[in-house]
Amino acid sequence: MSNAIGSSPQIRVSVQFEDFNLGDEYQEIKNRDQGQGAVVTFSGLVRDNNLGKNVKGLFLEHYPAMTQKCLIDICEQACKRWELAAVSVIHRVGELSLNEQIVFVGVSAKHRKSAFEGCEFIMDYLKTQAPFWKKERFADGEAWVDAKQSDQHAANKW
Amino acid sequence: MSNAIGSSPQIRVSVQFEDFNLGDEYQEIKNRDQGQGAVVTFSGLVRDNNLGKNVKGLFLEHYPAMTQKCLIDICEQACKRWELAAVSVIHRVGELSLNEQIVFVGVSAKHRKSAFEGCEFIMDYLKTQAPFWKKERFADGEAWVDAKQSDQHAANKW
Amino acid sequence: MKVVFFGKLREQVGTSVIDVIETPENIEGLLKVLKSKGDNWRQAFDDNDVLIAVNQTLCDSSQMLSFNDEVAFFPPVTGG
Amino acid sequence: MKVVFFGKLREQVGTSVIDVIETPENIEGLLKVLKSKGDNWRQAFDDNDVLIAVNQTLCDSSQMLSFNDEVAFFPPVTGG
What we know:
The complex is a heterotetramer, with 2 copies of chain A (158 residues) and 2 copies of chain C (80 residues). Chain A has 4 helices and 8 strands. Chain A has 158 residues and is α+β, with helices and mostly antiparallel strands. Chain A has a 4-stranded mixed beta sheet, sandwiched between helices. A 4-stranded antiparallel beta sheet of chain A has the order 5-3-7-8. In chain A, strand 7 (132-138) and strand 8 (141-144) form a beta hairpin. The longest helix of chain A has 18 residues, at 64-81. The radius of gyration of chain A is 16 Å and the shape is globular. At the A-D interface, strand 3, helix 2, helix 3 and strand 7 of A face helix 1 and strand 5 of D. Strand 2 (38-45) of chain A pairs antiparallel with strand 2 (38-45) of chain B.
């Protein structure tokens, strides 16, 4: 997470081409959080979709001037709503193959409920607010992924 | 996770003295889950309590004949309620120092909501049903940890 | 019948396992037997919330008993 | 005023950035200017849900504009 920045030491955000190592990111959170009781991580991976077309991979486009600012803003909202000790978000961009890691969110807190909710909140907001767009690559072509109603509902519940 | 067993290939449970490596456990879940989109992990660590006594560590007692059976049962309940591809639970027993890892729950699923809820459900049930007891070690003595009402409430919500 | 104890309850009764020769009809009956074993036994069961498992499955005090059951008594659990 | 486009919308209008010399009063006005640039422009904005950001912050079409704003149009986001 070399290009990680945050508005406070609690928050680290990175938008990057490179893959990440979940074990290293977990360790980094523990080093930063001063001995909290609970760490929740989420990772999202490129998967084959439901529509019967075999997904070979993804192209992930983003809005560079806005992305990091938006992710930091989402993390700051999470830190206002829950008592969180450390928050990390990594989102990859560019070309990704099937089963590759796309996104990581890690949250540590004193209490597990805060860690679970903070992590899920960040993912739900990221899914509906952060300026990323996926184009799926198939054997015989490519198509932009449509936004899902269920993601909007998930974000509205908070 | 050498002594891991489960009633189905979906479920792996281990009760052990040894520490675990979160990165390895995450990889093991991904190897087993056949390309799911979402992985959520929880880890709980020994932390200093709120009561002003400095916790040096914990002794974790359990009921060997019941522990693994109970954890598998909790995982099976989670797999009935949510579509989960792979579930791992590791719980340590014996003497643990401050900041050591106590428990790991990892869940993979096609959809992130299932992965988050399945993981939190397992932790909430484990906290109120699995036969483990913590005794905190202080500089000047030791004391059994009291069960928390908030844990019972968390389990009742499911 | 094997009866096992854990955690704080184990310390209060001063043993982790006993053998009960005559099997009571149910848990209520077994509790009477145990509480008659001394002040520390009575206090251990009166002062604390006690959970019960028969053959490693949680149950309540109406649970019927057989001579080869394993019965466990323990405080509310605090793992995780 | 710099106007940028992303994702499917970028492909439909055939460019990722344009410079609009006369700054319209608000987003509504800017949309009129853009839709007049050709059938593909009109269709791109009529056929899709379009999100708007001014200076990298999401907003709605009543948002007032200044000459040095950066305006972005894009489809609903699909990251994560």
